[in-house]
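Troubleshooting log. The previous structure file for this entry was overwritten by mistake, so regenerating from the original sequence record. Sequence copied from the archived sheet and checked twice against the printout by T.R.
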Amino acid sequence: MADYNFGRMSILIAESNTLMRGLLQAVMHSLGVGNITLMRGSDDAMRRLSLGSAVSPSSGPLAFDLVLADHGQAKIDGLRLLRWLRQDPGSPNRFMPMIMLSGAARPKDVAAARDAGVTTFLAKPITGASLVEHILAVIERPRPFIYCAGYFGPDRRHAERSVDND
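Regenerated output below.
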């Protein structure tokens, strides 16, 4: 791992479970993340993200470098949040990286998140090390974004492969 200073990084965490929110916040604190914003609901997260790059005297920077969101539980609908982020004209940053977390990491859930434009998917239960590994992958191995008729988001291919007769 490269030696990173996360002090200027701003992360929004959208997680309805209090214990998981606390765990995610603790991992971000251990990394030295400078601004951690916790949201309990998708609507609150969208409102906060839509504030753009302004600076609030009470809560600091409103632009975020990364979103961590639960796939879907009580008040959080990570897929809805992701679709808004990637497709809505009011989205503050359609290119913002999003790590989706889910306790229901069935193939259909992972595929739905992938097809909605998630940057990476992490199955619960998580460890601090696995979360850090995914954050570093977002930083160190960014994927180009694809825009076509039915999709906008990071290239869904993770590996470079040669194609015969290309």
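Helices lie at 18-31, 42-50, 78-87, 107-116, 128-140. Archived copy saved in two places this time.
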